Structure formats: structure tokens, C-alpha cells
Amino acid sequence: MLIALVLIAGLWAGLQNALAGGGSFVTLPALIFTGMTPLAANITSTIALFPGQVTSGFAGRKLVSGAGRLPFRVLFILSLAGGAVGGLLLLNTPSAIFSRLVPWLVLFATSVFAWGSFFRKSSADSVHMGPVGAAIAQFLIAIYGGYFGGGIGFLMLAALTIAGVPTRNAGATKNVLAGVMNASAVAIFVTSPEVHWLEAAVLGAGAIVGGLMGSWMLRRVNEKALRVTIVCLGIALTIGLFAKPI
Fold first, then answer.
1. What's the rounded Cα separation, in Å, for the pair 209 and 10?
2. Could you give phi then psi for residue 14, rounded to 5 degrees?
3. CA 18, CA 217: separation in Å to the nearest integer?
């Protein structure tokens, strides 16, 4: 029964990531419900969703670009390094401490998602950010991505568009960089005893199928309604976590 729940969560997360993002809002509580600690759930979810990120990044590789005078290879290296730092920080965070951090991390991720979905201005209305600022922003986002990851898509999309990258190219670039920063974290996490491999395999398989379904449904689903659903889910999860710490 619990494995069936994990499979459904993977399908939902893959579909959600393909359409609007925010799949971790589904996988984290589903894995915690199976009995995992928040730390184990976060690590297992990161590993399970990684193949789907690679697929998305590969599909949009032709639109990838640098950020103005900051070449893509620098963004790549910063994402790789930041993801590794975030992953190491996570592995060195005691499970009890991470459990207390989770409600705040989910609150932050939900806020970022809501801001990116409904309140973020277009790049044309934003203050331009130079290559140094873009590099620092990407490195910090990558650290956060390796540590927790919720909302990194919108953080990167905002940073890249402010740095002058067209929205369509920014979307493809952030998909690739998300996979890069998580590659570092995954390389570190695979040796962790916190990984639940059966659940990771089932969740990953579901996410891949869900991602393919999402690609097919991309033009058939009301994206705004989906984003509202994701934000509501994040709010409910945040309230639940604060009301009953895990």
C-alpha cells in the first residue's frame, strides 16, 4: 500500500514538474508518510527525481545560454560546486535539527513558488544584474538547491532574467542547471545510509512516466489552476508541519 502511494506521488511529481514545477511538495510528505525521517525523505526524493531533471534539461539543451557576459560554462561550474556544498551541508545536519528546519524550508519554498507564479515582474521591468551578481546569485541558489531544492526553478528563472537572459532561454538554462546542481548532491547522497533505495526506484520510475505525461498534457491543462493547487498544497503542508513538528 505504501509503495503504491510512493508510485502515485512520483507520477504526480513528474507531471507537476513538467507542467509547472513544485514536485517536491508532493514527494516530501509522501516519503515522510511512509515512515522516513525528513532528512531521509529529502535525500531519497533528490535522488529519485534526478533522472527526470536530466531528461528535461536534455530536451531543451538547444536553448541554453549564458547570462550576458557570464558564459554558460561558468554557470555550470558554479552550479556543480554549489550543489556539492549544499549536499555536504545536508549530510552534516543532524536529523533532529533538519526536522525543525523543514517547516521553515517548506514555507520559504512555497513563498518563492507563489512569488514566481503570480507576482514576479517580467525581466523588462527588473533591475539589470551584471556578471558578478549573476555568478554570486547562482552559487547561492546552487547551495540551497543541494541542501533542500524547493523553489530553485523560480529563484534561477528570476536571477537569469534579471541578468538579461530572455525568458524562454532562461527556462531551458535553469532546467539544465537544476540537473547539474543536483548531480553533485546525488553523487554525495548515493553513499548515504539515509537513502531508501526501493522507494527511490519506485518514485523515480513514477516521476519519469509522469514527466512524459506532463509533456503531452502541457498544452491541455490550465497552468494557472495547477499553480494555485501547488501553492495551496504548500500552504497546507507548511501549516501541518508547524502544527505537528516531525
1. 8
2. -65, -45
3. 9
Cell numbers given for 7: 508510485
For the chain, the residue count is 246
Could you give the CA distance from residue 37 to residue 203 in angstroms, rounded to a whole number?
17
**SS3 readout for the chain:** CHHHHHHHHHHHHHHHHHHCCCCHHHHHHHHHHCCCCHHHHHHHHHHHHHHHHHHHHHHCHHHCCCECCECHHHHHHHHHHHHHHHHHHHHCCCHHHHHHHHHHHHHHHHHHHHHHHHHCCCHHHCCCCCHHHHHHHHHHHHHHHHHCCCCHHHHHHHHHHHCCCCHHHHHHHHHHHHHHHHHHHHHHHCCCCCCCHHHHHHHHHHHHHHHHHHHHHCCCCCHHHHHHHHHHHHHHHHHHHHHCCC
Q: Cell triple for residue 109?
A: 519554498
pLDDT tens, position by position, for the chain (246 residues)? 788 999 999 998 888 777 666 788 789 889 998 999 999 999 999 999 888 778 777 777 788 888 878 899 999 999 999 999 999 999 999 988 888 888 888 788 778 777 766 776 654 455 567 889 999 999 999 999 899 877 787 788 888 888 888 877 887 888 889 889 989 999 999 999 999 999 999 999 998 888 778 767 656 667 677 677 777 877 887 787 787 655
- CA-CA-CA-CA torsion sign (40, 77, 167, 55): negative
Cell of 18: 513538467
Cβ atoms of residues 237 and 29 within 8 Å: yes
